[in-house]
Sequence to fold (260 residues):
Amino acid sequence: MKLGVNIDHIAVLREARKVADPDPLDALSICKLAGADQITIHLREDRRHMHDSDAKNIIELSALPVNLECAIEPSMIDIACTLRPHRVTLVPEKREEVTTEGGLAVTGAQPKLKEAIRRLQAEEIEISLFIDPTLEAVRAAIDLHVEWIEFHTGKYANIYAMLYSNLAKTHHTITELELPRKVLKQMLDDELRNLRLLSCDAMELGLKVAAGHGLNYQNVQSIAEIETIEELNIGQSIIAHSVYTGLEQAILDMKALLIR
Ligand code: PXP
Fold:
Protein backbone atom coordinates (compact mmCIF):
# COMPACT_ATOMS: atom_id res chain seq x y z
CA MET A 1 0.00 0.00 0.00
CA LYS A 2 1.50 3.32 -1.05
CA LEU A 3 1.13 6.41 1.10
CA GLY A 4 0.66 9.90 -0.28
CA VAL A 5 1.09 12.50 2.43
CA ASN A 6 -1.20 15.48 1.93
CA ILE A 7 0.83 18.43 3.22
CA ASP A 8 -1.83 21.11 2.66
CA HIS A 9 -2.55 21.10 6.35
CA ILE A 10 0.86 22.61 7.00
CA ALA A 11 -0.21 25.56 4.84
CA VAL A 12 -3.52 25.66 6.73
CA LEU A 13 -1.58 26.29 9.94
CA ARG A 14 0.60 28.92 8.29
CA GLU A 15 -2.41 30.73 6.85
CA ALA A 16 -4.11 30.80 10.26
CA ARG A 17 -1.62 33.59 11.06
CA LYS A 18 -0.70 34.69 7.52
CA VAL A 19 2.98 34.30 8.32
CA ALA A 20 5.84 32.41 6.69
CA ASP A 21 5.96 29.38 9.01
CA PRO A 22 5.43 26.49 8.89
CA ASP A 23 6.56 26.23 5.28
CA PRO A 24 5.20 23.09 3.56
CA LEU A 25 8.40 22.95 1.52
CA ASP A 26 10.29 21.91 4.67
CA ALA A 27 8.13 18.78 4.85
CA LEU A 28 9.49 17.31 1.60
CA SER A 29 12.73 15.87 2.93
CA ILE A 30 11.04 14.57 6.10
CA CYS A 31 8.32 12.79 4.06
CA LYS A 32 11.01 11.19 1.91
CA LEU A 33 13.07 10.16 4.92
CA ALA A 34 10.03 8.60 6.60
CA GLY A 35 9.26 6.49 3.54
CA ALA A 36 6.24 8.31 2.09
CA ASP A 37 5.64 7.41 -1.54
CA GLN A 38 4.10 10.63 -2.74
CA ILE A 39 3.47 14.25 -1.82
CA THR A 40 -0.11 15.40 -2.33
CA ILE A 41 -1.09 19.07 -2.45
CA HIS A 42 -4.31 20.90 -3.25
CA LEU A 43 -4.05 24.25 -4.98
CA ARG A 44 -7.49 25.71 -4.34
CA GLU A 45 -8.97 28.31 -6.63
CA ASP A 46 -9.13 30.79 -3.76
CA ARG A 47 -5.54 29.92 -2.69
CA ARG A 48 -6.65 29.92 0.90
CA HIS A 49 -4.01 27.36 1.93
CA MET A 50 -1.40 26.57 -0.71
CA HIS A 51 -0.17 29.45 -2.85
CA ASP A 52 1.04 29.26 -6.44
CA SER A 53 4.61 29.65 -5.23
CA ASP A 54 4.18 26.69 -2.83
CA ALA A 55 2.91 24.46 -5.63
CA LYS A 56 5.69 25.58 -7.98
CA ASN A 57 8.48 25.06 -5.43
CA ILE A 58 7.10 21.73 -4.19
CA ILE A 59 6.74 20.32 -7.72
CA GLU A 60 10.21 21.55 -8.70
CA LEU A 61 12.04 20.41 -5.58
CA SER A 62 10.29 17.25 -4.42
CA ALA A 63 12.29 14.05 -4.73
CA LEU A 64 8.98 12.19 -4.44
CA PRO A 65 6.27 12.25 -7.12
CA VAL A 66 3.82 15.09 -6.57
CA ASN A 67 0.08 14.61 -6.90
CA LEU A 68 -1.55 18.00 -7.50
CA GLU A 69 -5.24 18.19 -6.64
CA CYS A 70 -7.14 20.87 -8.48
CA ALA A 71 -10.56 21.87 -9.79
CA ILE A 72 -11.50 21.37 -13.44
CA GLU A 73 -11.58 25.14 -14.06
CA PRO A 74 -9.59 26.11 -17.20
CA SER A 75 -7.39 28.53 -15.20
CA MET A 76 -6.39 25.71 -12.82
CA ILE A 77 -5.69 23.36 -15.71
CA ASP A 78 -3.46 26.09 -17.23
CA ILE A 79 -1.41 26.04 -14.02
CA ALA A 80 -1.29 22.24 -13.87
CA CYS A 81 -0.09 22.10 -17.49
CA THR A 82 2.63 24.64 -16.72
CA LEU A 83 3.79 23.05 -13.47
CA ARG A 84 3.64 19.50 -14.88
CA PRO A 85 3.34 17.47 -11.66
CA HIS A 86 3.61 13.71 -11.82
CA ARG A 87 -0.16 13.38 -11.39
CA VAL A 88 -3.19 15.66 -11.32
CA THR A 89 -6.18 14.60 -9.25
CA LEU A 90 -9.29 16.41 -10.40
CA VAL A 91 -11.50 17.30 -7.46
CA PRO A 92 -14.75 19.21 -6.98
CA GLU A 93 -14.40 22.52 -5.21
CA LYS A 94 -16.87 24.68 -3.37
CA ARG A 95 -15.81 28.01 -1.94
CA GLU A 96 -17.82 27.56 1.25
CA GLU A 97 -16.57 24.06 2.12
CA VAL A 98 -13.96 23.45 4.82
CA THR A 99 -12.60 20.44 2.96
CA THR A 100 -13.49 18.45 -0.17
CA GLU A 101 -16.88 17.13 0.81
CA GLY A 102 -17.64 14.69 -1.98
CA GLY A 103 -16.49 13.22 -5.23
CA LEU A 104 -16.38 14.87 -8.63
CA ALA A 105 -19.54 14.84 -10.77
CA VAL A 106 -18.29 12.47 -13.46
CA THR A 107 -21.54 11.17 -14.89
CA GLY A 108 -23.27 13.09 -17.66
CA ALA A 109 -20.03 13.74 -19.57
CA GLN A 110 -19.37 17.30 -18.48
CA PRO A 111 -17.63 19.14 -21.36
CA LYS A 112 -15.41 21.01 -18.87
CA LEU A 113 -14.19 17.76 -17.35
CA LYS A 114 -13.53 16.21 -20.76
CA GLU A 115 -11.60 19.29 -21.83
CA ALA A 116 -9.50 19.26 -18.63
CA ILE A 117 -8.65 15.60 -19.23
CA ARG A 118 -7.83 16.22 -22.89
CA ARG A 119 -5.43 19.04 -22.02
CA LEU A 120 -3.66 17.14 -19.22
CA GLN A 121 -3.32 14.06 -21.40
CA ALA A 122 -1.79 16.18 -24.15
CA GLU A 123 0.91 17.14 -21.60
CA GLU A 124 1.32 13.46 -20.68
CA ILE A 125 0.34 14.12 -17.08
CA GLU A 126 -1.15 11.14 -15.23
CA ILE A 127 -4.77 11.84 -14.26
CA SER A 128 -6.84 10.71 -11.31
CA LEU A 129 -10.50 11.46 -10.65
CA PHE A 130 -11.62 11.90 -7.04
CA ILE A 131 -14.98 10.13 -7.08
CA ASP A 132 -17.64 8.85 -4.73
CA PRO A 133 -17.56 5.07 -4.43
CA THR A 134 -20.44 4.27 -6.80
CA LEU A 135 -20.65 2.00 -9.82
CA GLU A 136 -21.86 4.88 -12.01
CA ALA A 137 -18.81 6.95 -11.11
CA VAL A 138 -16.43 4.05 -11.80
CA ARG A 139 -18.08 3.42 -15.18
CA ALA A 140 -17.85 7.10 -16.04
CA ALA A 141 -14.14 7.15 -15.10
CA ILE A 142 -13.53 4.19 -17.41
CA ASP A 143 -15.30 5.99 -20.26
CA LEU A 144 -13.11 9.03 -19.63
CA HIS A 145 -9.91 6.96 -20.13
CA VAL A 146 -8.01 8.15 -17.07
CA GLU A 147 -5.31 6.08 -15.33
CA TRP A 148 -6.46 6.49 -11.73
CA ILE A 149 -9.51 6.94 -9.59
CA GLU A 150 -9.41 7.96 -5.95
CA PHE A 151 -12.39 6.91 -3.85
CA HIS A 152 -13.70 9.50 -1.41
CA THR A 153 -13.71 7.63 1.91
CA GLY A 154 -15.57 10.36 3.82
CA LYS A 155 -18.72 8.27 4.23
CA TYR A 156 -16.71 5.35 5.64
CA ALA A 157 -14.80 7.67 7.99
CA ASN A 158 -17.97 9.34 9.23
CA ILE A 159 -19.75 6.05 9.95
CA TYR A 160 -16.61 4.85 11.75
CA ALA A 161 -16.54 8.00 13.86
CA MET A 162 -20.22 7.66 14.75
CA LEU A 163 -19.70 4.05 15.75
CA TYR A 164 -16.47 4.23 17.71
CA SER A 165 -16.07 7.74 18.99
CA ASN A 166 -17.83 10.99 19.66
CA LEU A 167 -16.16 12.60 16.69
CA ALA A 168 -19.23 12.39 14.45
CA LYS A 169 -19.07 15.13 11.88
CA THR A 170 -21.47 18.01 12.20
CA HIS A 171 -23.04 17.53 8.78
CA HIS A 172 -24.73 14.36 10.02
CA THR A 173 -28.27 14.73 11.20
CA ILE A 174 -29.33 13.98 14.75
CA THR A 175 -31.27 10.98 13.45
CA GLU A 176 -28.08 9.49 12.05
CA LEU A 177 -26.22 10.14 15.30
CA GLU A 178 -28.90 8.31 17.23
CA LEU A 179 -28.77 5.18 15.11
CA PRO A 180 -28.29 2.01 17.17
CA ARG A 181 -24.77 0.58 17.16
CA LYS A 182 -25.95 -2.56 15.36
CA VAL A 183 -27.23 -0.46 12.47
CA LEU A 184 -24.03 1.61 12.37
CA LYS A 185 -21.91 -1.56 12.36
CA GLN A 186 -23.95 -2.86 9.43
CA MET A 187 -23.53 0.46 7.61
CA LEU A 188 -19.77 0.31 8.15
CA ASP A 189 -19.56 -3.28 6.88
CA ASP A 190 -21.70 -2.33 3.85
CA GLU A 191 -19.47 0.62 3.02
CA LEU A 192 -16.31 -1.47 3.32
CA ARG A 193 -17.86 -4.13 1.11
CA ASN A 194 -18.85 -1.45 -1.40
CA LEU A 195 -15.29 -0.09 -1.49
CA ARG A 196 -13.87 -3.60 -1.81
CA LEU A 197 -16.17 -4.64 -4.67
CA LEU A 198 -15.85 -1.37 -6.56
CA SER A 199 -12.06 -1.25 -6.32
CA CYS A 200 -11.93 -4.85 -7.54
CA ASP A 201 -14.21 -4.00 -10.51
CA ALA A 202 -12.22 -0.86 -11.27
CA MET A 203 -8.92 -2.70 -11.20
CA GLU A 204 -10.22 -5.47 -13.43
CA LEU A 205 -11.33 -2.82 -15.91
CA GLY A 206 -7.84 -1.36 -15.98
CA LEU A 207 -7.99 1.51 -13.49
CA LYS A 208 -5.52 2.07 -10.67
CA VAL A 209 -7.31 2.73 -7.42
CA ALA A 210 -6.42 5.16 -4.64
CA ALA A 211 -8.54 6.25 -1.69
CA GLY A 212 -8.57 9.08 0.80
CA HIS A 213 -10.38 11.58 2.98
CA GLY A 214 -10.95 11.29 6.70
CA LEU A 215 -8.59 8.33 7.13
CA ASN A 216 -6.79 8.25 10.45
CA TYR A 217 -4.81 6.03 12.81
CA GLN A 218 -7.99 4.39 14.11
CA ASN A 219 -9.93 3.72 10.92
CA VAL A 220 -7.26 3.14 8.26
CA GLN A 221 -6.52 -0.55 8.69
CA SER A 222 -9.74 -1.95 7.21
CA ILE A 223 -9.20 0.19 4.13
CA ALA A 224 -5.52 -0.77 3.92
CA GLU A 225 -6.55 -4.44 3.87
CA ILE A 226 -8.36 -3.96 0.55
CA GLU A 227 -5.71 -5.31 -1.78
CA THR A 228 -7.08 -3.71 -4.92
CA ILE A 229 -6.54 -0.23 -3.45
CA GLU A 230 -2.95 0.70 -4.31
CA GLU A 231 -2.54 4.02 -2.56
CA LEU A 232 -3.95 6.12 0.26
CA ASN A 233 -3.70 9.91 0.43
CA ILE A 234 -3.82 11.08 4.01
CA GLY A 235 -3.41 14.60 5.39
CA GLN A 236 -5.30 15.88 8.41
CA SER A 237 -4.63 12.98 10.77
CA ILE A 238 -0.91 12.75 9.96
CA ILE A 239 -0.32 16.47 10.40
CA ALA A 240 -2.43 16.50 13.59
CA HIS A 241 -0.40 13.59 15.02
CA SER A 242 2.84 15.27 14.00
CA VAL A 243 2.15 18.16 16.37
CA TYR A 244 2.94 15.72 19.19
CA THR A 245 5.36 13.27 17.58
CA GLY A 246 7.05 15.20 14.81
CA LEU A 247 6.28 14.62 11.14
CA GLU A 248 8.73 11.78 10.56
CA GLN A 249 7.31 9.69 13.41
CA ALA A 250 3.73 10.50 12.40
CA ILE A 251 4.39 9.12 8.92
CA LEU A 252 6.21 6.07 10.29
CA ASP A 253 3.28 5.37 12.63
CA MET A 254 0.83 5.59 9.72
CA LYS A 255 2.99 3.41 7.48
CA ALA A 256 3.12 0.75 10.19
CA LEU A 257 -0.68 0.48 9.95
CA LEU A 258 -0.63 0.05 6.17
CA ILE A 259 1.37 -3.20 6.14
CA ARG A 260 -0.85 -6.02 4.83
N1 PXP B 1 -7.53 12.96 -1.19
C1 PXP B 1 -8.17 14.04 -1.69
C2 PXP B 1 -8.50 14.06 -3.15
C3 PXP B 1 -8.49 15.15 -0.87
O1 PXP B 1 -9.12 16.22 -1.39
C4 PXP B 1 -8.14 15.10 0.49
C5 PXP B 1 -8.50 16.24 1.38
O2 PXP B 1 -7.66 17.29 1.21
C6 PXP B 1 -7.44 13.97 0.96
C7 PXP B 1 -7.18 12.91 0.11
C8 PXP B 1 -6.94 13.88 2.36
O3 PXP B 1 -7.98 13.98 3.29
P1 PXP B 1 -7.65 14.13 4.83
O4 PXP B 1 -6.98 15.44 5.01
O5 PXP B 1 -9.00 14.05 5.46
O6 PXP B 1 -6.74 12.99 5.19
The chain has one domain: 2-257. Strands lie at 2-6, 38-42, 66-70, 87-90, 126-131, 148-152, 208-212, 231-234. The mean pLDDT is 93. The pocket of pyridoxine-5'-phosphate is lined by residues 6, 8, 42, 69, 89, 91, 99-100, 130, 150, 212-215, 233-237 (CB under 6 Å).
